[in-house]
């Protein structure tokens, strides 16, 4: 498929889009950033709401949720300040450590800002949910998150992380959980391990507070972008058939996605898949399910609302 074909598929659709996974950072600010690294030529430049809007607005994107890209406590405030100045951003997922002595105080302080929607924790910043959830106070932190009606978002799924998320869902059943990048999860090669992984996903699927993102979908093989829809269909079907149309949402992973392909092509690949669904399912995928998952608030007239 040609680049022209991909761009054509990414033209605006009747329903608006809320992108539930973008990252914002500014490497040139005083003190720099913990990520991306200076050697990352694809990413090491300011990722701002204005830059994202220029790329995404022509394709019908009217809002986005900014996901933390730093473990520094002060960057929760930096991200919220950036979001406050740009109504395109309908919410922020920050970074807090649930078993930290300061967790309750920081959670309450950040939650005072309606743009703060929850925290992210998983295979990121040298953390391991499977181990860390057993630390004293960790589950109590997640219970406080649930009581505040905030989201617990995972990072970079592996079989171990999925197993840990299932345990979290069992122990904190009223916690809303968003599993990111599931199409890019590391699938076990060994038969028994794969069966266990699939079983964990099936156990998570009936839980109404568990959502997944079809994000990090595009794949490079030999340095070339795979555009054949059949290459992606099997894995996406497996996720869709497991979780259903009410709990799957769109996330571009911009600008991290630039490692693989530009925004328009990322959107085009997923639109090819979603075009096989009915209009109601597509609407849920592009914005309604993100509202159910995050409870974000409308900030612009063109942003949808129930």
Radius of gyration: 18 Å
Distance N to C terminus: 37 Å
The tally of helices reads: 11
The proportion of residues forming helix, as a percent range, comes to: 25-40%
CATH fold annotation = TIM Barrel
Could you name the CATH class?
Answer: Alpha Beta
For CATH, the homologous superfamily is named as Metal-dependent hydrolases
- For the secondary structure, the number of strands is 10
How many domains would you count in the coordinates? 1
Spans of at least 5 consecutive residues with low confidence: none
Sheet with the most strands, sense and barrel status: 8 strands, parallel
Shape: globular
Label the structural class.
alpha/beta
In a nutshell, what does this entry contain?
This protein is an alpha/beta fold.
List keywords for this structure.
alpha/beta; two-stranded antiparallel sheet; 11 helices; TIM Barrel; globular
Write the layout of secondary structure elements.
Layout: H1 3-9, E1 17-22, H2 49-56, E2 61-67, H3 74-84, E3 89-94, H4 103-111, E4 116-120, H5 129-132, H6 138-147, E5 151-153, H7 159-171, E6 176-179, H8 191-204, E7 210-214, E8 220-221, E9 224-225, H9 229-243, E10 248-250, H10 263-274, H11 279-294
Parallel strand pairs: 1-2, 2-3, 3-4, 4-5, 5-6, 6-7, 7-10
Antiparallel strand pairs: 8-9
Helix pairs in contact: 1-10, 7-8
Describe the structure.
- Strands 1-2-3-4-5-6-7-10 form an 8-stranded parallel beta sheet. A two-stranded antiparallel sheet has the order 8-9.
- Helix 1 (3-9) crosses helix 10 (263-274) and helix 7 packs parallel to helix 8.
- The longest helix is centred in the C-terminal third of the chain and has 16 residues, at 279-294.
- Helix content is 39%, strand content 14%.
- The model has no long low-confidence stretch (mean pLDDT 94).
- It starts with a helix and ends in a 12-residue tail after the last helix.
- The protein is globular.
- With 306 residues, the protein is of the alpha/beta class.
- The chain has one domain (3-294): TIM Barrel.
- It contains 11 helices and 10 strands.
